[in-house]
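ARCHIVE CARD
Drawer: 12
Card no.: 0347
Subject: one protein chain, sequence and derived structure
Cross-reference: see card 0346
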Amino acid sequence: MINIVIGLDVHKRSVYATVMENNGDIIIQRNMENNIEMVNEFLSDYRDHDIVIESSTSGKYLCKELLKLNYKIHLINPSKVPEIYNNYKKTDKEDSFQLADVFRKGGMKEIYIPSEEIENIRSLVRYRHSLGEEITLKKNKVHALLTSYGIIIKATDPFGKKGLKEIENNYNNLNYSDKIVLRSLLNDISYIKDMEKEIETEISSISYNSNDTKLLMTIPGVNFYTAAGILSEIGTINRFDNKLKFASYTGLIPGEYSSGERIIKGHITKHGPSLLRFFLVETAHSLIKYTKKFKSKYLSIVRRLGKKRSIIAIARILAETIYAMLKNNVRYIERERTETVNPDELYFKRLEELSLKKINNMRRIAKNGNVHDDSANLIYHRGIKDC
């Protein structure tokens, strides 16, 4: 059988295909409608051959549909391929040709294609995160509006029952138009909170049977939402050969600029998913306060690097710890206990209790949807992170 590779340049309404032999000879080039039935009919003669698609929004959709039909799909990032990204000639025909040509030469790094289950969790977590950002924006607008009238809410939580009661008592101090704005903002906040609870319930239902989720929840500061977020952005830990490659994927390693004997370390690369870095850094803030291991590491480097860079360093150590936990199927508590010369059993007993409490909380939410306010945010109780 002649080895063939097919490059597909996918757009919202059209797909341009180049079918190429392994020696570079073009068998056929064709433009067609972006319709899965039509594309499947065209590709049916090449089912056992490699198909290359770039990672655009439309490309990812077609990729998923073709995977369901058992095609051999390779997803690539064109910005990482100079022959495509820097090509002065940008046409659908040329792009599809370059996709096939570069792949047959072996000069293309593929993008990981997550399973449907991981895609589902990833979509929910990213949407839940966006809701959190949106509600923060609206709360800030409420604060700004009230401050412009000299109104200060004394309640600990301005948007809890007591806080909302204070806002209601000051409602008549606002002019007509600002009353409408305030009422609209408060309604939006209430609606977003309900949406957050609905999304969290769905995340807990999907994640409850995941052993990896329960493993990560043994880390103080990691609840089911954070664990699901980290795992959905990782995909599968087995695609990383070692902890250094995983740390590189998180974007928490410094860039390096070397020439001759001169080596310069720069800022972190910020490659990989930004949401994964967000979860790691937020968890790092918890760990330096409420775990002995990470607090000790933080204090040993903070005077040398400063607070911000030290937190990033802790987040990278956390990433490597997570890699080891998932790779070896080991809980955080067991891992820290084996690394401790004289383990404080009362401390580890407390960590065990918190871990079990978080799992029970996830079970309760998955079962009846009883989500507490801000359950996915950073809330502390009695010195150690509760969820």
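Annotation on reverse: Confidence is low (pLDDT under 50) at residues 374-387. Strands lie at 4-10, 14-21, 26-33, 50-54, 72-76, 254-259, 262-268, 380-381, 384-385.
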